[in-house]
Amino acid sequence: MEVSSIARTIGRALRLNEDFIEALALLHDIGHPPFGHAGEDALNEFLADEVGFSHNHYALTLVEDLERPYPGFAGINLSREVLQGQRFRIDKTALTNWPLLEVQTVDLADSITYDAHDVDDAVKLGWLQLDELLELPLVRNCHATVIDQFGNLSDRALRQALVHELINCQVRNAIVEATSALEPFQSTSAAGVQAAKLRFGHSPTMASQKEALESFLYERLYRHADLVLARRDAQRKLSALANFFCVSPHELPRAYQLRIDQYGERRSVVDYLAGMTDRFFLRQYARLQLERH
To answer: Which residues does 68 contact at the CB level (< 8 Å), separation at least 6?
Structure first.
């Protein structure tokens, strides 16, 4: 939801198609399986002998096949542009058409959002200290802005204000850079801009600071011992439930049993598992008492 809000903010400033942006933003991560990227890695390994698993590709499976609100055809009634925008996320190196500006806007908003909220989560959980993050230029600059504007704050208020400023400064920078890049195309159609292969992004300074933050988060947060243990536990449970359904496909819902002849057993099992929330997955895991298997 926040990716949608941020992307629409950028899109409105640049006079892009806000409805298109919102649809892209709401679609972009619906393919995440239980436990996010940890679950994605487990399902990808489970399908290693086939085509693997990607949450971006699974999002298309959901809206083009699994969801069936209409009797006349499978999938949701989405525009070609929305579906093509999601295909860009699957493999950004295999471009048949340059991504539309709205697609780039959502991609940029996604990056802005998860960087800021990973910082928030890490500090809130006590896995990182604010003093450590202040060694990074982007965080240090945002922290200085917050202190200048609000003075001394409680730890909780400071963390919240810092996250907001991390988002705001990146959004401001993206809008300034995009406005400048679009200036020569004021009288050009969307197709003309696409043909010119215009690419949105941050300024070199902001991009460098953002890269430093992401490298820091990769080393100090995503490899944190507690997170590694949680990932391993989640992946073990996902693998156990996937193997259980392969041995006992009759335990799958009827709709997924019917997919086996067309898509194969393992792919049908993954299609079912990937559509679960964390809580529903854990309920199914407990119901089947897999710890005894």
So the answer is: 74, 75
Residue 211's alpha-carbon distances to 112, 128, 137, 166, 252, in angstroms, are 12, 18, 11, 14, 43
Q: How far apart are CA 60 and CA 264, in angstroms?
A: 18
pLDDT in tens, 135-193: 999 999 999 999 999 998 999 999 999 999 999 999 999 999 999 999 988 878 888 88
Contact partners, residue 261, CB within 8 Å, separation at least 6:
none
Checking if the pLDDT of 292 tops 70, the result is no
The H or E element containing residue 214 is helix 204-220
The whole model's pTM is what? 0.89
CA separation for the pair 99, 89 (Å, rounded)? 10
Sign of the Cα torsion 184, 187, 188, 189 reads positive
Contact 239, 42 (CB under 8 A): yes
Predicted local distance difference test score (pLDDT) of residue 266:
96
Computed over every residue of the chain, the mean pLDDT equals 92
Tell me how far apart the alpha carbons of residues 82 and 8 are, in angstroms, rounded to a whole number. 15
Helix%, strand%, coil% for the chain, nearest 5: 70, 0, 30
